[in-house]
Amino acid sequence: MVAADSKAKLLEDAEKYVLHGKIQLAISAYLKIVSLNPSDILIINTLGDLYLRQNNISEANKYFSLVAENFVQNNFLQKAIAVYKKILGTDPNNIEIGSTMAVLYAKQGLRLDAYDLYLRIASLLEKEGKIEEALDAYEKCLDLDPSNSGVRQKMATLHQKEGLQENARHCGGTGWSFDKTGDLMDVAHAIERAAQWAPLNPPLNPELPGEKEIQISAASDSPSTNVPTEPEMDLSADLLDLFLAKDGNSSPAKAIASEPAGPNSIAMGMHAEPIEKASPPDRNEAMAFFDERFNLGMIYRDMGLIGEAIEEFETALKAMDVHEGDIRVIQCCGMLSACFLDKHMPSAALDWCQKGLARSDISFHEAMALRYDMGIAHAMAGNAEEALECFERIFNADPGYRDVAQRMDKLRFGFERHAP
Q: Fewest CB atoms within 10 A around its CB: which of 125, 193, 210, 223?
């Protein structure tokens, strides 16, 4: 009981100190509370916010890390992501936090976010000269996006700088590309890279059983009489033959290579049938993606990270077919209008209110909520008459709705004061 009374008194004192701007005294009071209850995550997060107000980034992030770790331990992964993002906002080059956050993104199925973060981590590690760790990060990028030729070429370049020609050829060559993606178009784009990384007279893909060696003569100002002249070879055809042979096909590559190039031509004069576009994700996948981003947006807004919340809500909305009737679309319009009101951006808030109200599938309660936000946005923008009209429409439908009566009185009082 004594401890509880002591905590209540300390909490009261801390809140008063914050109210009067005495941040250091508030921190001291909150630290005493944490000493009584080390697992009070709310207080620990408050300490992080107060240290942030003092611009003490290292102390702030120490406490935010404790909060995030607690969320991870209790499997609140979206909340952990939100806190880690807060840390990266003040310490963007923190590789340890970035790596942890990338893992969480991947676990949550947020592959694009995980990819972008791993790519940034790889770049930071490369700048620090930690090439092996950078390559590991690039490898994680490729696990998330196997067809990314830019990352493969980057890895090949790093391997070459380290003198690891075999690894460079493996990253830049077609065998690796096919194994990762199974995509012949990707193979074709990798053919020229394979030639770049290959030393003279190697088996181009020694990991493939039965592959023939292709002899490539070195260019010289004066050809040596000791080196027999090889007939010019079509490297693209030979390489493609190897991969088509894996599927039991005969060798059509050379016949294809001799055909005239058409609008779908790819590397080195080969002609190919158009590659079919990947089919869009089904509705269940789209809804799951929407829910992930929408929930993350809600968490960001609760934490006061309004810009990040807006980004998540807009990303969520893009996952849905806005022409279909779905309550999620209207919910997103409502959250975006609320976020822009939080940022005191009434014009943007009005846009989202109007988009939501324009939908034929909107319910009565959803329309009331959006019109309420519209009234606030008009008032914030100085459009008193439009604001009053919004609140009057709400009042006529439900006189007890929120505080519309008080808002109407306030607006009418303003009109009376400015009347001639």
A: 210
Tokens of 366: 């959803």
User: What DSSP letter does each residue of 227-252 carry, written as one string?
Assistant: SPPPPP--HHHHHHHHHHHHTT----
DSSP codes, 87-112: HHHH-TT-HHHHHHHHHHHHHTT-HH
The DSSP letter of residue 277 is P
**Judging by beta carbons within 10 Å of its beta carbon (0-12, 13-18, 19+), is residue 294 exposed, middle or buried?**
buried
Residue type (1 letter), 52: L
pLDDT, position 287 = 79
Query: By the 8 A CB rule, do 366 and 330 touch?
Result: yes
Evaluate whether 379 touches 413 at the Cβ level (below 8 Å).
Answer: no
pLDDT-derived band at 247, boundaries 50, 70, 90: very low
What pLDDT shows up at residue 414? 73
Which amino acid is present at 150? Answer: G
Q: Sign of dihedral through CA atoms 308, 309, 310, 312?
A: positive
Q: What is the 3-state secondary structure (H, E, C) of 380-420?
A: HCCCHHHHHHHHHHHHHHCCCCCCHHHHHHHHHHHHHHCCC
End-to-end CA distance of the chain: 64
Rounded CA separation 91/309 (Å): 19
Q: Which CATH architecture does the domain made up of 284-417 adopt?
A: Alpha Horseshoe (1.25)
- Domain residue ranges in the chain: 1-76, 284-417
Question: Does the 1-76 domain belong in CATH 1.25.40.10?
Answer: yes
Instruction: Specify burial of residue 32 (Cβ count, 10 A radius: 0-12, 13-18, 19+).
Output: middle
Residue 191 scores a pLDDT above 60: no
C-alpha to C-alpha distance for 262 and 274, rounded to whole angstroms: 10
Widest CA span of the chain, in angstroms? 107
* Cα angle for residues 235, 239, 240 (degrees, 5° grid): 115
